[in-house]
Design brief:
It is globular and about 55 Å long. The model has no long low-confidence stretch (mean pLDDT about 95). Strands 3-2-1-4-5-6 form a six-stranded parallel β-sheet, sandwiched between helices. It is built from eight helices and six strands, in the order E-H-H-H-E-H-E-H-E-H-E-H-E-H. Helices cover about 40% and strands about 15% of the residues. By secondary structure, it is α/β, with parallel strands linked by helices.
């Protein structure tokens, strides 16, 4: 898969304090996998290269108003877990994007993410197509949930999809590894952060 920086976006899904940072209400659930892969440092280094290459950085946080009025009265599954833990409340520290990956000038922050698939309730597809993006590289939380849901829809919508295997984390090593081994290759090209940045730098050198 050729990576042209002009037509490439890295989509950072839910790099928010409730996941990434000590004191975040969901941090303990993902910390073991985060540490085993070094995903936060990997992503920070990757973003620096991506910006220098002129590719697009897209931040995709999930937020809810206090009381979770955007959801059904009786949520279930993963969204029930969000409500029960009081995670990602708009305006609170836990919902803020982690400082290490804070949006910079030229980055895009999509609005309206309320569920698993980043395309479903946001303006992501509009933004990507308006900017001529044909390749998306995905990182974030959770490996087997929001990242995988976004990956599948990106594939269906005709994007060239890359998943960054060491820039994602889940609530257990088993869920993380199974998604990367069995699901990701069906709907994306699986690459490490280093492999992706090498491809990007190679494209820059060939200009």
């Amino acid at each position: 898969m050729a990576i042209d920086p002009k037509h490439t976006a890295v989509v950072l899904i839910e790099f928010q304090n409730d996941f990434t940072s000590e004191g975040g209400v969901l941090h303990d659930a993902v910390n073991d996998v985060m540490e085993s892969t070094g995903m936060l440092d990997n992503t920070r280094r990757l973003v620096e290269v991506v910006r220098a290459a002129g590719a697009t950085i897209v931040h995709a946080p999930i937020t809810f108003m206090a009381g979770y009025g955007e959801l059904s009265e009786h949520p279930y599954g993963i969204l029930k877990g969000v409500v029960d833990s009081s995670a990602f409340v708009k305006g609170e520290w836990g919902a803020e994007i982690v400082d290490a990956l804070a949006p910079q000038e030229g980055d895009v922050v999509v609005e309206g993410k309320r569920g698993l698939d980043t395309f479903a309730t946001t303006n992501l597809d509009f933004i990507l197509r308006a900017r001529g993006i044909t390749t998306i590289a995905l990182g974030g939380f959770l490996t087997n949930c929001c990242v995988e849901s976004t990956m599948r829809t990106g594939y269906e919508k005709g994007y060239e999809v890359i998943t960054l295997s060491d820039c994602v984390a889940a609530t257990s090593p088993e869920e993380h590894e199974n998604a990367i081994k069995f699901d990701y290759p069906m709907f994306s090209e699986v690459m490490t952060a280093d492999a992706f940045t090498q491809e990007l730098q190679g494209a820059m050198a060939a200009r």
